[in-house]
Write a structure and sequence with these properties.
The complex is a heterodimer of chains A (about 375) and B (about 400). Chain A has about 375 residues and is an alpha+beta fold. Chain A has helices at about 5-25, 25-35, 40-50, 70-80, 85-100, 105-115, 230-265, 275-300, 305-335, 345-360, 365-375; strands at about 120-125, 140-145, 145-160, 165-170, 180-190, 195-200, 205-220, 220-225, 265, 270. Chain B is about 45% helix and about 15% strand. Chain B has helices spanning about 5-25, 25-35, 40-55, 70-85, 90-105, 105-120, 235-245, 250-265, 280-305, 315-340, 365-370, 380-390; strands spanning about 125, 145, 150-160, 170-175, 185-190, 195-205, 210-220. The longest helix of chain B has 28 residues, at about 280-305. The chains are: A alpha+beta (about 375), B alpha+beta (about 400). At the A-B interface, helix 7, helix 8, helix 9 and helix 11 of A face helix 1, helix 8, helix 9, helix 10 and helix 12 of B.
Chain lengths: ~375, ~400
């Protein structure tokens, strides 16, 4: 067991940190958010140049062979700066799905495109009835000759506003909540029969609702006909990555809060001299570090060969991160007072991103209920 | 970064478990599992078994009986002892006074005391707190006045854990009454049989007699029992408390209690169905299991950074006391939830325990007893102030 970063890992983290510090300060982010697309193509090209977009893919597929630790380092940096590009949607979530579900030929075509920044992908999966169940899919795909006909609706497709292509989960057979019979399709966003309504989410990022009305795609669009395992694994990776992003955001929120406590003077003394506020800040620090520990636990879990153990590690981490995100976000705003409530100051945006992460993919009660169903988290040594 | 236990680590765990299973009396294991404590003779016997195996003092320098284990192995050893559960060697000896002696003591002190500490030939207790010096330890008033080859010690210590068994006590006493608060304090080793030392037991709210008051009336302590330099005792005390903090997460104890809660919940009446099926209870249990894992990872982060030998203690270690105590307390509350109103029976008064409450044995006593965790070793409020000042710079 060793928590030290390798030379390459340290370099990766420092480079990402430097890039974001130089090109993505808070004022820049505000301008980008107000722009027509709500994210920056120039920034996307810079991520490509730095190798970040191909990072999570295997070298034989045209990627850079990064693992969960590398993803964690990048996401933590992103959490501090809150860039608006669909890195998580394309490289992490869709990327994990491609790696698990797509055949080698397809990977060889897509991964270089993603790596070069020429393909934005989004995973269209969630549906109105799903809540946090990963296999709840009512969208259907029926074979019609050489084609599939897809009908249904997807909501909250992260990165869906700008995606060039969608990975769409649709039911080939079975009941709505069945684990079996889930197919995964790769569909161009301009395909007739696919309509998209884009919107901004609370964190300033963008998502879309999709509806498919007799969407007809060639049979070759079906890239996996039994995708439940790949979907599970992709969400485990996605949860670990989100946890890391939240740690970055909490770290930044704490830093801003401590700076504020040291400089803001009331009653002729810095706020930080009041013990009530010191202790609250200490509790924020503890919540952050416990979240960091559980992110490492989830990252460790991703190397588990048993998918069940991997899942419980990811859910356990997500629960801890959710609660830390709530506490750190709310208390950082509280300690800032009025300035923490404004759109023109970074803290509020960190809080909004943390609040979003807290609700993404699994809320705390869902995590706890799933964990209670399974073997004890303490069963392993 | 490599976030897995090695095959050697896993084999090491197995070796420890096999040794504990073969050498610890089952009745003692069972008693500890139910929240009971080892009697003096039980702890002495067990310590000697460990010592004969070379495992009573893993963290000591190898020349004085340390095992040379890596920090991760030492952590595994503590974890396995706590989870088994098997008694841990007496911390006042092996983890508190011994490191002070082997770091700051004279050669004569090392030779005289360390082997007897390792074998629990001498039972040590801690003379720090006083009636007027709790969290503000440096305001202590016990004095040690030099008189030829002796110090004459006068004063009172309190909250002295297990002093009823003790042969020796390590004491902070004021040797220079004119010096400022933290200056002028010395670290003395005092034989409990010395004339003028008296003890008075204090009963705690769990019914146990665990702590005592110790009175010193003109107690003559040979100068050779001063550790290190006169008036430098505060530095040694800070060193001791920093060592102490690292061992206080005690995640293994929380894990063991959570596992017991899980077992009990399978049968514990929950109103029509076992507690195991109670949705609110299940969420609480799952949450505490997550908290145990989180704290364990934090411990590992601290332990692994120690092996770097950067010299500086990892600031994270201040979390260990804080979260470790809170987690242990939370597990005792959940144990009370499981046993429900059966926890109300005062088992100590009802011997033999009525058979229908035997399984609830220890739940209330443990709950009451472990309130101490957030009070001793630097109250949790003190820990928060340490984090705010030394880590956050407030």
């Amino acid at each position: 067991m060793n928590f030290d970063l390798s030379e390459e890992q340290r370099l990766l983290r420092d480079n990402v940190e430097r890039l974001l510090a130089k090109t993505y300060d808070f004022e820049t982010r505000r301008k980008i958010a107000a722009g027509p697309e709500g994210f920056s193509r120039a920034a996307w090209a810079r991520y490509a140049d730095m190798g970040l977009l191909g990072l999570p893919f295997a070298e034989e597929d045209g990627g850079f062979g990064g693992g969960p630790v590398e993803t964690m380092l990048v996401m933590e940096c992103f959490g501090r700066a809150l860039p608006l590009e669909p890195y998580f949607a394309t490289a992490i979530l869709s990327g994990a799905l491609l790696r698990r579900a797509a055949a080698a030929e397809l990977r060889a075509t897509l991964v270089p495109l993603i790596g070069e920044g020429k393909l934005l992908l989004a995973f269209a999966h969630y549906e109105a009835q799903s809540r946090y169940l990963l296999h709840s899919i009512a969208t259907t795909a029926r074979r019609e000759g050489d084609a599939y006909r897809i009908d249904g609706e997807k909501c909250l497709v992260l990165g869906g506003a700008e995606a060039d292509k969608f990975l769409i989960s649709a039911r080939l057979s079975g009941a709505t909540h069945s684990r079996d019979g889930i197919g995964l399709f790769l569909v161009d966003s301009s395909t007739p029969g696919l309509s998209r309504r884009s919107y901004r989410t609370q964190d300033g990022e963008r998502a879309a609702a999709l509806s498919f009305a007799a969407l007809s795609v060639p049979a070759s669009a079906l890239i996996c006909d039994d995708a439940a395992g790949a979907i599970d694994a992709a969400f485990d990776e996605a949860l670990a990555a989100l946890c890391a992003e939240a740690v970055g955001a909490m770290d930044e929120a704490l830093k801003l809060t401590v700076d504020y406590l040291k400089t803001r003077v009331q009653f002729r003394v810095p706020l930080g001299s009041f013990q009530a506020l010191q202790h609250r800040a200490a509790d924020i620090y503890v919540a952050l570090e416990q979240a960091r520990s559980m992110t490492l636990f989830a990252v460790m879990g991703l190397s588990e060969s048993d998918p069940h153990r991997r899942r419980t590690a990811a859910l356990a981490a997500k629960a801890r991160i959710n609660e830390s995100a709530l506490f750190v976000g709310e208390q950082a705003v509280q300690l800032h007072g009025g300035i923490g409530m404004t759109m023109e100051y970074k803290l509020g945006h960190l809080f909004k991103r943390l609040t979003t992460i807290r609700r993404l993919f699994a809320d705390t009660d869902h995590c706890l209920d799933q964990l209670a169903e399974s073997e004890s988290l303490l069963a392993a040594p | 970064m490599d976030l897995r236990f090695t095959d050697e680590d896993i084999a090491f765990r197995r070796e420890l478990r096999e040794f504990f299973a073969a050498n610890l009396p089952e009745a003692l294991r069972r008693k500890l599992e139910q929240g009971g404590k080892a009697e003096k003779h039980e702890l002495v016997a067990w310590t000697r078994i460990l010592n004969a195996r070379g495992w009573a003092t893993p963290h000591w320098p190898v020349e004085w009986g340390g095992t040379g284990w890596s920090p991760v192995q030492q952590m595994i050893f503590r974890d396995e002892l706590q989870q088994f559960p098997a008694p841990e060697p007496l911390s006042f000896g092996v983890s508190m006074v011994a490191p002070v002696i082997f770091t700051f003591g004279s050669e004569a002190q090392k030779k005289r005391f360390l082997p007897r500490i390792a074998n629990l030939d001498d039972w040590w207790c801690q003379g720090f707190s006083e009636p007027g010096a709790g969290s503000d330890l440096a305001s202590l008033k016990t004095t040690a006045r030099r008189d030829g080859d002796f110090y004459i010690v006068n004063g009172q210590k309190t909250w002295t854990t297990l002093a009823q068994y003790a042969d020796w006590i390590f004491v902070l006493a004021r040797t220079d009454p004119s010096a400022k608060k933290q200056k002028g304090i010395s670290f003395l080793l005092i034989d409990m049989t010395t004339p003028g030392v008296t003890r008075r037991p204090i009963q705690l709210i769990d019914g146990s007699v665990e702590v005592n008051e110790i009175f010193f009336d003109d107690v003559r302590v040979p100068v050779e029992n001063l550790v290190g330099e006169e008036n430098k005792g505060w530095d040694y005390a800070k060193f001791l408390l920093a060592n102490e903090r690292n061992g206080q997460a005690r995640v293994g104890l929380s894990k063991a209690r959570l596992n017991r809660i899980r077992q009990l919940a399978a049968a514990a009446p929950g109103g029509g169905a076992p507690m195991r099926d109670n949705a609110a209870f299940r969420r609480k249990l799952a949450w505490l299991e997550i908290e145990a894992r989180a704290l364990e990872m934090t411990v590992l982060r601290v332990v692994c950074s120690e092996s770097d030998e950067h010299g500086q203690p990892n600031p994270l270690s201040s979390i260990l006391k804080l979260r470790g105590s809170e987690l242990q307390q939370a597990t005792t509350e959940l144990l009370m939830d499981v046993v429900g109103s059966f926890a109300l029976v005062d088992v100590a008064e009802a011997q033999p325990a009525p058979p229908d409450v035997e399984w609830a044995h220890g739940a209330a006593a443990t709950y009451f007893n472990l309130r101490k965790l957030s009070i001793y070793g630097g109250a949790n409020e003190i820990q928060r102030s340490i984090i705010a000042k030394s880590i956050l710079g407030l």
